[in-house]
Amino acid sequence: MAEKTEDRRKTRTRNALLAAFNDLILKGRKKTIGISDVIEKANVGRSTFYEHYSNAQDLHMQALARPLSILADAATGQGDTAKLQKLLEHFWENRQRARDTFYGQRDQVGRLLAGQIEERLEASGQDSVLPRKLASMQIAESALAVIRGWIGAEASCDVETLAISITRTTNDLRHSIARCDPPSEGN
Question: Which residues bind DNA (predicted)?
Answer without folding.
Answer: 34-53
